[in-house]
Each structure stands twice: as structure tokens, then as C-alpha cells.
Design goal:
Elements lengths: L28 E3 L7 H10 L5 E2 L1 H7 L3 H14 L6 H8 L4 E2 L8 H7 L4 E6 L2 H10 L1 H6 L1 H6 L4 H18 L3 H23 L3 E5 L4 H8 L14 H43 L29 E3 L6 E3 L7 H12 L1
Parallel strand pairs: 1-3, 1-4, 2-3, 4-5
Antiparallel strand pairs: 6-7
Helix pairs in contact: 3-9, 6-10
């Protein structure tokens, strides 16, 4: 398959169980702002400052699809009261990463701040109406994209991502972003500030366009050369979403041809052989006669054919009658006389 124009799509899919991981590097930065507040740009900035790798929703979508299953466990523990999800689980899920941003992580701000008390906390933010419009044109559109809805029945990765996306939508916005999106965002940001204040944690509220200086000052890093990253602008986001869907569609089609087509051919072949096999092909426990006697034709009557009995007030079916139906009519007539 030809490489994508988008770098984050040019990754190999790893069928890895996150439950088998452990903490490998210290967690240094928690970026707890909602999507469409510059989280992708922040991911690139942190990695350029040496605070990566940084976990983003794309990590679960493109590279580690089974992470979606563990994120689902986290949602069920917090919002449904099913099971528990503590420090050990966060180390398994995020153990290879020095920083984390975007959802699903933002939905667990208090839990992550408790699990990693020494990590710096950044809250990416944006003017709320601008954010609501951007979210509606990107993530809400991806949720309703026709190819995603089709692929969830054929592609295992799309099914995992789709299920988690639906769970997030339900838990964060009560399944109605248009009505509840703004209120949910305001509440989330107020909760982050409240929890951070209760824990005595500093928070950097970072807006799109703030640039390197406030970020590097907060993190104690030198300002790098070059402009602050700008990633996932609205138009690029849509193109990337559509290309990701096409990549998954090609993978699903290739698997269908590789696995499904031979299975169908084998099934049709076995069915044809079973229908065309003669009863004489069956192995008999008796020796073959020296002289083959030709078979005589057998009369066969449908169960829809009936005869009337003068003594029995009912219609009796006669199927596979041998030698003939007339023989039995004669016998019945004799019994009634």
C-alpha cells in the first residue's frame, strides 16, 4: 500500500494487549483540554521539547487499536460502576509515554492527576463558540461518516474505535453534542481547575496562538527554533479522516479476499460434491454381487396425494408407496365389504 501524505497514518498496526505493559518512563505532562483546542499541535510541541512520546487519541486509532478496549474499561469503571481502574491500570495503558493529551485522557482528568501527582498539568483552551463549531465540523462529522458506519461491521479496528467514540459521546455529552456540548466543556474546565486547586497543582491554560514562550517557561525548557506547530487544521482533519477510512476499507477488503473467498469456494465445492454424489458411491459392508442386476424404477407419490377411506373419516397421506397406490385402494375396499 502506498504511503499516506499524513505522517501519523504511516504507522504499523500493533495487535498488542495493553494489560501486559507496565510503566517504562515517568509521566511528565498531562494535557487535559478537550479535542479541537490545539491538542495535536501540543503533542508535536511536547515531543519537540523532549517530553515525548505523547499519547493522543490517534495512538489508539492508528497504531494500538486494542487500547480502545482498555479505554472502554476505564469508562465503564468511572461512569457505569463496572470494575475498577487505578494507578496500575494507567501504567499499563500509558506506561510507554511521558505525556498524554486529547480524549479519551481528558475524560479522566481527576484520575490522572491523582495517579501522577508530579506531572505538569496543561489545559489547552479555545473560545467556546469557535470550539463548538470546529468540533461539529470534524469529530461529529466523523461520527456520522457513512464509511465508518459500514466498516464497523467488517473491520475490527473500526469497530473498536467506533464503540469507544460512541461511549465517549454518551458519557461526555449525554449523546447530544449540539445541545450539551458547550455546557459540558465549561464544566470540564471548571472541574480541572477545582481538582488542581484542591491538590495544590499549578495549571498552564494554553490558547491557540500563545506560541513557545509560555509553554517552555512553564515546563522549564529552552525555546526551540522555528514556529510553534500547527497541526490538524479543519480541512486537513477531514482529509485525514477520509483517508484513514479508505485505508481501513482496503485492509478489510484484502482480508475478505484472503480469508473469505477461499472459504466460500471451499463451501460451494463441498456442497456441489455432496449433491452430485450417487448413493452407490457409499461404501457397503456387503460384498458386491458377481452379476449386477439393473434397478427397477420405483413409484413415488407426493404427500399431497390422498385416498378416501370409507371407514375412516379422514384423508390419509401416502408417500413412497410401493408397489402402487391402487394396491392399497383395493385392500381398503376389500376390508370395508
Amino acid at each position: 500500500m502506498a504511503p499516506s501524505q499524513f505522517k501519523d497514518l504511516n504507522v504499523s498496526v500493533k495487535d498488542e494487549d495493553p494489560h501486559l505493559r507496565s510503566r517504562m518512563v515517568p509521566m511528565k505532562v498531562l494535557v487535559l483540554g478537550y479535542p479541537r483546542t490545539g491538542t495535536s499541535s501540543m503533542q508535536m510541541a511536547l515531543e519537540k521539547l523532549g517530553l515525548g512520546p505523547c499519547y493522543h487519541m490517534r495512538t489508539a486509532m492508528n497504531e494500538y487499536p486494542r487500547d480502545n478496549e482498555m479505554w472502554m474499561e476505564a469508562f465503564q469503571a468511572k461512569y457505569d460502576g463496572i470494575g475498577t481502574f487505578g494507578k496500575e491500570h494507567w501504567d499499563q495503558l500509558l506506561g510507554h509515554y511521558s505525556s498524554v493529551c486529547d480524549v479519551p485522557a481528558a475524560a479522566f482528568s481527576a484520575e490522572l492527576m491523582k495517579a501522577y501527582p508530579d506531572a505538569k498539568v496543561i489545559l489547552t483552551n479555545r473560545e467556546i463558540d469557535s470550539w463548538h463549531t470546529s468540533y461539529s465540523k470534524t469529530l461529529q462529522r466523523a461520527r456520522k461518516y457513512w464509511l465508518h458506519r459500514v466498516l464497523r461491521y467488517f473491520d475490527w479496528m473500526t469497530q473498536l474505535v467506533h464503540s469507544l467514540r460512541e461511549k465517549q459521546w454518551q458519557c461526555l455529552f449525554a449523546d447530544d453534542f449540539k445541545q450539551n456540548g458547550r455546557q459540558a466543556m465549561l464544566k470540564h474546565y471548571a472541574d480541572v481547575w477545582r481538582v488542581a486547586s484542591d491538590m495544590g497543582r499549578d495549571v498552564l491554560e494554553f490558547h491557540i496562538g500563545d506560541g513557545w514562550e509560555p509553554l517552555c517557561h512553564f515546563l522549564g525548557r529552552d525555546v526551540p527554533d522555528g514556529a510553534y506547530p500547527r497541526e490538524n487544521e479543519g480541512g486537513d482533519w477531514i482529509l485525514k479522516m477520509q483517508e484513514r477510512a479508505r485505508i481501513r476499507a482496503k485492509a478489510a477488503a484484502a482480508k475478505l479476499l484472503r480469508v473469505g473467498l477461499p472459504t466460500v469456494v471451499l463451501g460451494l465445492t463441498l456442497g456441489f460434491m455432496a449433491r452430485t454424489a450417487s448413493p452407490r458411491d457409499a461404501v457397503s459392508p456387503y460384498p458386491r454381487p458377481l452379476l449386477a442386476v439393473p434397478r427397477l424404477p420405483r413409484l413415488r407419490f407426493s404427500t399431497l396425494q390422498f385416498i378416501e377411506s370409507p371407514q375412516i373419516n379422514a384423508k390419509l397421506p401416502f408417500d413412497n408407496v410401493l408397489p402402487s397406490a391402487g394396491h392399497y385402494r383395493n385392500r381398503l375396499s376389500g376390508a370395508s365389504s
